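Figure 3 (text version): structure tokens given as input.
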């Protein structure tokens, strides 16, 4: 029989109701005798042996035992603090799903005298005096678990002021997450007074990892090196997760230098399709949400894109970029033929005047045949413009040719942001531009000093 079950029976022997004491005592004795257990009284002197960060077996709710389920009157507690005649303990249970992950501290039963992995709910504190019917000391937190526990305590103290007096300030370490310039970063390397960190995001297109607070994503292409000012720790990952992030980062660096033809990458604010490799450089062209009028579309992972075959970008393998998707060999071959077909059938170059060159996102243009109607350029793809016309709180999207419009003026940055925000709140824009590309335009304008 397991040790905890035997201890529960011992507890029952000395704490059963007086009315039923004589009826049950002999039965319990017989069961214990079968297990060769010697029944002795519990010494209050054991209180002196208990220290901070001990795991003990004790009466779960001594003041109201009637509300405790049968067989659950005793359980594990983690000693948070000890005074002369009182213990402050944290409630423990084998049910690890009742609280948010940052409020749970789980210990492995293999490291302690426990039957199951046990979850301690850090925000549930109980005070016991020296009269507590303490049954058994199950172990003391090892150095690693103690450090992990103190880190959780330090993060929770702001939300739960009652924990402040028990927490200590810990220095920033690798694997910790902190805030810098309104962005979150994971401390990746610390050398003397310098800190290398990787940006953490909620973008599901990035690499996923599990932190103390739950699911997060990381941008391996967005790395900063700054002075280590011992930033406030807001979250952290375990040693195992940190080692996995290091491995993923090495894989990412290898992938960057070995991406295949047909890979879509995100470089700064552009989404590019890589079609060739030359030494330390990749060649690629910008791709967009598919245009209804565009007959030359490429396909990656069964998703169609329009492409600007005219403007070719060179990307150094050492540049920061994220890998978004990779085409199959068949798709890459077909995309190569699409580009060849475009080169054969591409229209003659239209001479673009200086005013036409200035037309871009945020430009206000008018149709040469309908001079009184104004359109806002949402996206420019070579000679094609995606425009929006506003009339009585309604939006009308249309594609216009660059040669068929005149430039009236350019919206100020704040004005164009208002336009994009209004469009994002409508439902019909998705037919013309997907949310991802609209967000790219939005971020590009928002981060620019002016448009």
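Below: residues designed for each position.
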């Amino acid at each position: 029989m397991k040790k905890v079950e035997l201890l529960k029976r011992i507890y029952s022997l000395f704490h059963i109701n007086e009315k039923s004491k004589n009826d049950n005592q002999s039965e319990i004795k017989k069961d214990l005798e079968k297990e060769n257990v010697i029944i002795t009284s519990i010494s209050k002197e054991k209180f002196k042996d208990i220290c901070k960060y001990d795991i003990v077996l004790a009466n779960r709710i001594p003041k109201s035992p009637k509300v405790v389920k049968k067989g659950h009157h005793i359980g594990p507690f983690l000693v948070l603090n000890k005074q002369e005649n009182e213990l402050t303990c944290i409630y423990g249970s084998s049910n690890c799903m009742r609280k948010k992950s940052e409020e749970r501290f789980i210990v492995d039963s293999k490291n302690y005298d426990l039957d199951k992995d046990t979850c301690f709910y850090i925000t549930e504190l109980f005070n016991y005096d020296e009269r507590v019917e303490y049954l058994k000391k199950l172990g003391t937190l090892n150095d690693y678990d103690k450090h992990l526990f103190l880190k959780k305590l330090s993060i929770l103290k702001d939300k739960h002021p009652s924990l402040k007096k028990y927490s200590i300030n810990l220095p920033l370490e690798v694997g910790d997450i902190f805030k810098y310039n309104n962005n979150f970063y994971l401390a990746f390397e610390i050398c003397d007074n310098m800190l290398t960190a990787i940006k953490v995001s909620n973008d599901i297109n990035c690499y996923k990892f599990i932190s103390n607070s739950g699911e997060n994503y990381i941008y391996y292409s967005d790395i900063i090196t700054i002075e280590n000012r011992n930033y406030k720790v807001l979250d952290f990952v375990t040693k195992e997760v940190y080692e996995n992030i290091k491995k993923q980062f090495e894989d990412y660096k290898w992938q960057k230098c070995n991406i295949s033809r047909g890979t879509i990458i995100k470089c700064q604010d552009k989404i590019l399709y890589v079609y060739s490799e030359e030494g330390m450089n990749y060649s690629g062209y910008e791709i967009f949400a598919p245009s209804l009028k565009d007959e030359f579309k490429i396909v990656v992972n069964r998703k169609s894109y329009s492409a600007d075959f005219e403007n070719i970008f060179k990307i150094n393998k050492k540049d920061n970029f994220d890998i978004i998707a990779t085409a199959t060999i068949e798709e890459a071959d077909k995309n190569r033929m699409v580009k060849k077909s475009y080169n054969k059938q591409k229209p003659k170059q239209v001479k673009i005047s200086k005013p036409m060159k200035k037309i871009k996102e945020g430009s206000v243009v008018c149709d040469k045949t309908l001079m009184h109607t104004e359109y806002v350029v949402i996206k420019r793809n070579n000679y094609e413009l995606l425009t929006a016309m506003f009339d009585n709180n309604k939006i009308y999207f249309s594609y216009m040719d660059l040669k068929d419009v005149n430039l009236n003026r350019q919206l100020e940055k704040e004005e164009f942001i208002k336009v994009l925000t209004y469009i994002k709140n409508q439902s019909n824009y998705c037919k013309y531009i997907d949310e991802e590309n609209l967000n790219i335009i939005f971020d590009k304008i928002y981060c620019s000093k002016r448009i």
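Confidence is low (pLDDT under 50) at residues 16-43, 62-68.
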